[in-house]
Amino acid sequence: MTPIQRFKRQLAAQQLLDPEVTVIVAVSTGVDSMALLTLLEQLPSQQRPQLIVAHVNHHLRVQSQTEAAYLTKYCQQHQLTLRLADWPVSAHPQTGIEAAARQFRYAFFGQLMLATNATAVLTAHHANDQAETYLMKLARGGDLAQLVGIQTARPFYTGRLVRPLLAWSKHQLREYAQAQKVTWFEDATNADIELTRNRLRHRVVPELTQLNPAFLEHVASYERQLQQLLRAQAEMVAVLLPTVMAPEKQLKVAAWQQLPSSWQLPVLKAWLAQVTNRPVSQLKLGPVAHWVQSLQLPTGQLTLNRDWQLSKAAGLIAIQPLKKRVKKLRPVEKNMVDLNQWQKITATQVVGVFERAPRATSQPFPVTDEDWPLQWRPWQANDLVQLKGGGHQKVRRILIDQKVPVAQRASVQVLVNAHDVVLWVVGHKFSYRQPTTATRTVFLALKHTELKGAHLKR
């Protein structure tokens, strides 16, 4: 099969082999997008869609102007419609410039789609891009559903965003471009291995491809399998969810507990997402599930996020919106710990509970399954800290002894377990606990303020 035959098959699958259809081709003048443009131009006239070439001059490199000028001349010579957009230096942000550039670029494509009634925007993402995306998501961790890679097609403005080259490797595109004597420009920043994607591109992916030449094909296969599994899970959850929901959308705890254990978390996640209209992270799901089925806490409330809280009573869990408050947190308010994530709890303190120490000053702390969920809250008058000798010390006395100004004491936060036992007076003192009693060890960490030697006090 020739490259053009292969490309025609991919476009046909997206119903884009039609001269009555208009498509926007995103062209950066790199080898990938120039190869895509050349493939489109080689389609037979009776099958080739109407082409609109879209290019953004980001003014991020010295050669940006040269590239825009080249593409302008190229489109004139090939009788192609060209639409240019300019992203001036004055609009560049101080940080996050890559994300901002992408946002500007895709907004331009969307506006162009609306103006031209185009059916699709075509981009030149390929198999190596897919592999890099997978590896980056694997390294970051998180929800399995977030591991989904670049999609061949997805909705975009009034049409679709289509990537017809996802089955092509970078090497294949370069070979095709060389065979067709295509002119392209190399982006010098692509060689900067300080950037994560570039390190994967130049070091990791080549090593894995050398280890197994079929690596890119395997990634594509994993993507298809993951999509199928997620679809199957969604279909099963749609069947199970109504069996655990009360008429007012509460969760029936007993019915949920009777589900097969492997389906409890997916159903709980789907229920939370349906009622709050917001996805729930996998890291937060475990503590919520533990709270839902805890026999020691048959009633109570749990803050899910800044907008919602859970309320448990009479075997039902309800989701209620949190009332917005302008004033500072009252002593009764709690915020659930998001494991392995930094959380801002005061104007100057960012804290976290981690499975691996995020910094050298992190404090290892033994915990049991009965501790979960952990929560942050302001300290209260009767709060006590466990001492190594077996006694206790009031949090109030700790703050006095450490000469914390009276005006600052109200803002001090504590970490408590599911039974409201203080584990840490943030920034001041940790409770003592025998390591042998632990199910596992977590690490308590604080940044933006000093620990003041508190990690040495017991």
Write the layout of secondary structure elements.
Layout: H1 3-13, E1 22-26, H2 31-41, E2 50-57, H3 64-77, E3 81-86, H4 97-116, E4 120-122, H5 127-140, E5 153-156, E6 159-162, H6 170-179, H7 196-211, H8 215-240, E7 251-252, H9 253-257, H10 261-276, H11 282-293, E8 300-303, E9 308-313, E10 316-321, E11 335-336, E12 343-344, E13 350-354, E14 363-367, E15 375-378, E16 384-386, E17 392-394, H12 395-401, H13 406-409, E18 413-416, E19 422-425, E20 429-430, E21 440-447
GO molecular function, one term: tRNA(Ile)-lysidine synthase activity
Subcellular location: Cytoplasm
Protein name: tRNA(Ile)-lysidine synthase
Account of the 3D structure:
This protein has 13 helices and 21 strands. It folds into 3 domains: 3-211, Rossmann fold (3-Layer(aba) Sandwich); 224-321, Chorismate Mutase Domain, subunit A (Up-down Bundle); 335-456, no CATH class. With 458 residues, the protein is of the alpha+beta class. It has helices spanning 3-13, 31-41, 64-77, 97-116, 127-140, 170-179, 196-211, 215-240, 253-257, 261-276, 282-293, 395-401, 406-409, and strands spanning 22-26, 50-57, 81-86, 120-122, 153-156, 159-162, 251-252, 300-303, 308-313, 316-321, 335-336, 343-344, 350-354, 363-367, 375-378, 384-386, 392-394, 413-416, 422-425, 429-430, 440-447. Helix content is 36%, strand content 20%. Residues 325-332 and 450-458 have low confidence and may be disordered. Helix 2 crosses helix 6, helix 5 crosses helix 8 (215-240) and helix 8 (215-240) crosses helix 10. The longest helix has 26 residues, at 215-240. The strands form 5 sheets. Strands 3-2-1-4-6-5 form a 6-stranded mixed sheet, sandwiched between helices. Belongs to the tRNA(Ile)-lysidine synthase family. It is found in: Cytoplasm. It holds the Pfam family TilS_C.
